[in-house]
Amino acid sequence: MNRGHRHYINRKATSSQPKRRHRKPRRGAGCVPVITCGGRKFIPIVLGQKCWGPGIKGKQFYSIPKGGVEPGENFYQTAVREVREETGFDISCRHLKFLFNGGRCVYYTLRLKMKGLPRLFPSDTTEIAKAFWLPLDDVATFLEEVEQTPMSFCNKDLQTFFKHHLHNI
């Protein structure tokens, strides 16, 4: 069975049951930790690489830490796990605040003050190539540079965050 399709055939269906059933899109959560260090604010950005589906293996994109909700998790737990997996940065769900709903993904923010920026290292390098801290006052330059490269943002959520929700953090 090809898992890349949004539907599958129910081989045990009777004549009164539909033979095709569409799979519900997987919900996700993400977090934008905002670190104040040396009078500047920074957020983590990940450089991901798609490794699923025909013709898109190895395609790179920029994103904020996010991912799908695993069975038994809530959105807060997913956001914390994804930040840890994609950046190596450990956070607590205790201080997460709702930031915005990006359709299939709910985003939170967390504000911290630190003396130095922690080193970021993704735990799964097959999915995330690298993670880095982006100063918030460099966002406009970053967006311009990315638009001039063949790389694209993972989805509209990151663009929505930069254009409409950045002022909330």
Describe the overall structure.
With 169 residues, the chain is α+β, with helices and mostly antiparallel strands. It has one domain (25-168): Alpha-Beta Complex (Nucleoside Triphosphate Pyrophosphohydrolase). It has 3 helices and 10 strands; from the N terminus they run ββββββαβββαβα. The protein has helices spanning 75-87, 139-147, 156-165; strands spanning 7-9, 20-22, 28-37, 40-50, 59-63, 66-68, 97-101, 105-113, 128-135, 152-153. Strands 3, 4, 5, 6, 7, 8, 9 and 10 form an 8-stranded mixed β-sheet that branches. The protein has a two-stranded antiparallel sheet with strand order 1-2. A hairpin with a 3-residue loop joins strand 7 (97-101) and strand 8 (105-113). The longest helix is centred in the middle third of the chain and has 13 residues, at 75-87. The radius of gyration is 18 Å and the shape is globular. Mean pLDDT is 79; it is low at 1-10.
Kindly estimate the percentage of residues that lie in beta strands according to DSSP.
Answer: 25-35%
**Overall morphology:** globular
Largest sheet: 8 strands, mixed
- Counting helices, strands and paired strands, the structural category is alpha+beta
Radius of gyration: 18 Å
User: How many strands appear in the DSSP assignment?
Assistant: 10
Total separate domains: 1
- The CATH homologous superfamily: Nucleoside Triphosphate Pyrophosphohydrolase
The CATH architecture comes to Alpha-Beta Complex
Roughly how much helix do the residues carry, as a percent range? 10-25%
CATH secondary-structure class: Alpha Beta
Which series of helices and strands comes N to C? EEEEEEHEEEHEH
Mean pLDDT: 79
The separation of the N and C termini measures: 44 Å
| Contiguous helical run count | 3
Oligomer: single chain
The name CATH uses for the topology is Nucleoside Triphosphate Pyrophosphohydrolase
